[in-house]
Design a protein that fits this description.
Structural class of chain B: alpha/beta
Strand order of the largest sheet of chain B: 6-7-8-3-9-10
CATH superfamily of the largest domain in chain A: MetI-like
Shape of chain A: extended
CATH class of the largest domain in chain A: Mainly Alpha
Order of helices and strands of chain A: HHHHHHHHHHH
Number of helices of chain A: 11
Distance between the termini of chain A: 51 Å
Distance between the termini of chain B: 32 Å
Number of domains of chain A: 2
Largest sheet of chain B: 6 strands, mixed
Shape of chain B: globular
Low-confidence stretches of chain B: 254-261
Mean pLDDT of chain A: 90
Number of strands of chain A: 0
CATH architecture of the largest domain in chain B: 3-Layer(aba) Sandwich
Mean pLDDT of chain B: 89
Helix content of chain B: 25-40%
Oligomer: heterodimer
CATH class of the largest domain in chain B: Alpha Beta
Number of strands of chain B: 10
CATH superfamily of the largest domain in chain B: P-loop containing nucleotide triphosphate hydrolases
Largest sheet of chain A: none
Number of helices of chain B: 10
Structural class of chain A: mainly alpha
Radius of gyration of chain A: 26 Å
Chain lengths: 269, 261
């Protein structure tokens, strides 16, 4: 090395991501200009905000005196409906997701099956829950059936995609070893693939139960049943104390689900 | 017993991994396959049980031609070829016993295997094999709790419980220490002798191969460069297989091998 002498004693810096200095500064300047321009387009009516603050304050204050009792019947009914929707849609959704995930993993499915399963996932992911719910409410009428179907459908897109990705990144050698023993396809999946993806499947399933419960609170707003419907009614009647009670219960349930999922995920490693 | 005729494998990228390999392995012969990385050793043994589909050529296992078999028939023939892997390829999250019994998957139906209700004869054989390799007390441990040498022993049991006629062994000692490597090689060769199995062993360690096998095949760029007795591996021969290097230290005879056991 001839130029090693000139290197000694000079500091070293990580080469910048954008090599050309003028381009680097232009991008930075452009970004700042964009931020300023974007800020200027936000049209805030400060008098409206001032009035709104009062309502906001009432809403938050309601949390200090949540009213669990006066609508306890409605809350209980809505909550039960939500929980049933959550469990049923999670079970059905996960059961349908597993075969679709197998089909959507490029390393185990032939191309036509792969494309079919990937398009099912794409459709499920492209349609937002609320839109699906509105459509299904239109078809099946108001009530938890529409909500249950919506959540099942949404679960498929979520779980199949993530599970398929886990299958695609599994250790090939383990699966190969099972194949080399002369196993059938299903045995190969059961021994070579399933043990590898089981922790992820369980983790994702619990997470999805969590999401489905939270979504079930939203879907009520478009008439798909559950605690959301009760919550919506409470807001419509300006019964912020009842709404606060409902929100507190939702927060409590989500937190306990989070806690349980933590314990289970630790166990299945 | 195993006969390869003009076996060719060309990968989609255009790399020719095997160039018309002819090979004949008689009953009960333990054979080492040596050669530099990328010479096609792994491809060769994977083309035999069709984990890799050969491009052309024929593979005969006891007069059954394998390359043209349907899925179901291939499955039945795979039962007769036990495979031992580099890095063990055990199912990490299953128990040692499940790993060994997975070698019987070709013989039992789906529901039996799914419910882990294997026939008593399989379970007995699994315990006998585990006892033979000194791991009977580990049967209910999870595979990822074992050390490297122990894992490879489980891998050997899994291959043997298939009741194979041929063992395909891919770099069995690649991630093991020198002592464990010898023990594993000795175990494989002893078991082959006990059961009269033929074996093809891919191996990087030339000295280790010389110590245990009856025949050595040298592969270079997908073609057989050397086929002969282990004693025939002279520095000149190694140079034709691997390229120029000082070979004296590699093929030095290890006389005190029994002392290591």
């Amino acid at each position: 090395m001839s130029d090693i002498q000139s290197r000694i004693g000079t500091p070293w810096k990580k080469p910048p991501f954008v090599q050309r200095a003028w381009l680097r500064w232009a991008l930075l300047l452009g970004f700042v200009c964009y931020l300023i321009a974007a800020y200027l387009t936000i049209d805030v009516n400060w008098t409206r905000v001032y009035v709104g603050l009062e309502r906001g304050k009432q809403f938050i204050l309601a949390f200090t005196s949540p009213d669990f009792t006066s609508r306890s019947g409605d809350i209980w009914e809505g909550m039960l409906e939500s929980i049933i929707m959550t469990i049923a849609s999670s079970v059905v959704g996960i059961a349908i997701s597993i075969p679709i995930a197998l089909g959507a993993a490029r390393n185990i499915a032939p191309l036509p099956v792969y494309l079919l399963c990937r398009s099912i996932i794409a459709i499920s992911r492209a349609l937002q829950e609320i839109i699906v719910a509105i459509l299904l409410v239109a078809i099946f009428g108001f009530g938890p059936l529409a909500g249950f179907l919506t959540l099942s459908f949404a679960t498929i897109g979520f779980l199949s995609k993530l599970l398929a990705e886990d299958i695609e990144s599994m250790d090939r050698a383990q699966a190969e070893a099972i194949k080399a023993s002369g196993s059938r396809w299903l045995q190969w999946i059961n021994y070579g693939v399933q043990p590898q993806v089981m922790p992820r499947l369980i983790g994702l399933s619990i997470y999805r139960v969590d999401i489905n419960f939270r979504e079930s609170a939203i879907l009520g707003l478009v008439g798909a049943g559950g605690i959301g419907a009760t919550l919506n009614t409470a807001f419509d009647r300006y019964e912020y104390d009842t709404a606060a009670a409902i929100l507190l219960i939702i927060i409590l349930i989500v937190m306990s689900l989070e806690y349980i999922s933590g314990i289970i995920r630790e166990r299945v490693q | 017993m195993l006969r390869l005729e003009k076996l060719v494998k060309t990968y989609k990228t255009g790399d020719q991994a095997l160039k018309a390999v002819d090979l004949n392995v008689p009953e009960g012969q333990v054979m080492a396959l040596i050669g530099p990385s990328g010479a096609g050793k792994s491809t060769l043994i994977r083309c035999i049980n069709r984990l890799v589909e050969p491009t052309s050529g024929k593979v005969y296992l006891s007069n059954v031609e394998l390359t043209g078999l349907s899925t179901g028939a291939l499955r039945r023939e795979r039962r007769r070829m036990g495979m031992i892997f580099q890095e063990y390829a055990l199912i990490e999250r299953l128990t040692v016993m499940e790993n060994v019994l997975s070698g019987r998957l070709g013989y039992v139906g789906f529901w039996r295997s799914f419910l882990r209700k294997f026939p008593q004869s399989d379970i007995d054989e699994a315990f006998r094999l585990l006892d033979r390799v000194g791991l009977a007390h580990m049967a209910d441990k999870r595979a990822d709790e074992l050390s490297g040498g122990q894992r490879q022993r489980v891998g050997i049991c899994r291959a043997l419980i298939q009741d194979p006629a041929l063992l395909l062994v891919d770099e069995p000692t690649a991630s093991l220490d020198p002592k464990t490597s010898r023990q594993i090689m000795r175990l494989i060769c002893e078991l082959c002798k006990e059961r009269g199995l033929a074996a093809i062993i891919n191996i990087h360690d030339v000295a280790l191969a010389q110590m245990f096998v009856q025949r050595v095949i040298g592969l270079r760029f997908g073609a057989v460069e050397f086929d002969g007795l282990p004693e025939g591996l002279t520095p000149d021969v190694l140079t034709t297989i691997y390229g120029e290097e000082d070979w004296e230290a590699t093929i030095e005879k290890v006389d005190d091998e029994s002392a290591v056991a």
